[in-house]
Each structure stands twice: as structure tokens, then as C-alpha cells.
Amino acid sequence: MSPPIDFSLRRRTLLAGTAAAAVVAAATRNTAAAQGTGVPVSAGETKSSVTLVVNGRERELMVDNRVTLLDALREHLKLTGTKKGCDHGQCGACTCTVNGERINSCLSLAVMHDGDEIETVEGIGQPDAMDAMQAAFVENDGFQCGYCTPGQISSARKVIEEIRAGIPSHVTGDLTAEITLTDAEIRERMSGNICRCGAYANILAAITQVAEERA
């Protein structure tokens, strides 16, 4: 049998609760009355104008405030190279760069990036004029189904830049020394990009090849 609950109702608690209940009831009545008479209840603006500089080109959009940067790129601008995988920021298929930094575009709202410079895989290179990283992925068979590849390439290019800039990772040992481009460093920094086909060894080879060519 449960022990008895020691409970006492204080006058101040009773008055505060009664006042709060009255406010909620009044708001409910007002909303119901407005709906009953056909008067719209304002919920604020639901759309906003946003200007994105995508792959060097200024694009102005009118989007729902809830639209992610990923959906703005894919559905509004038809730049479908950036992929929607998990839509929870866990797979990295949606990786692109914003003002030079890689992000998961599925976790960021389009309206947060007014005036920002965004680069997608379409801006990195095309089949007839591939970037060095794209060419290395082809040469090293760094993909199978190819769905994660745009995000992998976007991340891979930034990984080399981060290491060269001296930005440490969780596996960086000596924070006072120059960071070397090791397999462990690359694997750790690319861990946010999942390849369900398991082409990790070839992806590592492609990144290493580009890093060595630029050394």
C-alpha cells in the first residue's frame, strides 16, 4: 500500500491557479468566437522572402518559414545534387557549404541564410569539368549507389582545408603541433557522412590522393 500523500492547499497557490485558469478560459472563448464569426485569428507571418547566393548566383525565394535549406535547394531551386537521406542530420547526405563552412542543410532553415553564400555539388564541378575531389572519387571507386556521394565530396573538400588550417578533431593528439593528415584524422572528420554501401576505404583513398596532390 502506498504511503499517504502529505498535501496542503495554500491560499496563494489557489488564487494563482484560479487566475491562470481564467486567462486560459477567456482566450479560448475569444478564439472560438472569432472562428465562429469567420474572423481570422492572426498567427503571424508564415512566409518570408530570402535571398541566397547559390553557387555564385543570387537567387530570391519566397518560402514558408519552416522550409529547410535542403528543401529550398531541392524543391525551389531544383538543385537536386544535395540529397535528402535521414532528414535528421545523422547521415550527411545533405552536406553543403554555407559561407565556406560545411553544414547539414536538413537541420537549417532557409530563412536563417538570407544573404549567405551557399555551395552545392553542382557548384563544385560538372561531368565535363570535374573538381579534383570528384575526379579522385571516380578514379578510386569512392561510391557505389552514389546517393551519399555529393555530401561525401562536399565534406571531403572541407576536411583537407580544416586540417591545413590547424583545426583539431577528437583524435588530434598534440594540440600544440602541426596537424598531420592521417587516416585517423580523415576517418574522424568524415564520420558524419554515412555510406550505406560501405565504400569507406575507397573514399579514404580518394581524399588522401587529393591531399597529397595539393601538398
Automatic annotation (TrEMBL):
Enzyme class of the recorded protein, top EC level: oxidoreductase
UniProt KW keywords: 2Fe-2S, Iron, Iron-sulfur, Metal-binding, Oxidoreductase
EC annotation from Swiss-Prot or TrEMBL: 1.17.5.2
Domain 2Fe-2S ferredoxin-type positions: 48-124
GO molecular function: 2 iron, 2 sulfur cluster binding; caffeine oxidase activity; metal ion binding; oxidoreductase activity, acting on the aldehyde or oxo group of donors
Gene Ontology CC annotations of this record: periplasmic space
Coiled coil segments of this chain: none
Family annotation (Pfam families): Fer2 (PF00111), Fer2_2 (PF01799)
InterPro entries per record: 2Fe-2S-bd, 2Fe-2S-bd_dom_sf, 2Fe-2S_ferredoxin-like_sf, 2Fe-2S_ferredoxin-type, 2Fe2S_fd_BS, Aldehyde_Oxdr_Iron-Sulfur, Beta-grasp_dom_sf, TAT_signal
Entries under NCBIfam families matching the protein: PRK11433.1
Name of the featured protein: Aldehyde oxidoreductase
Organism: Roseovarius indicus
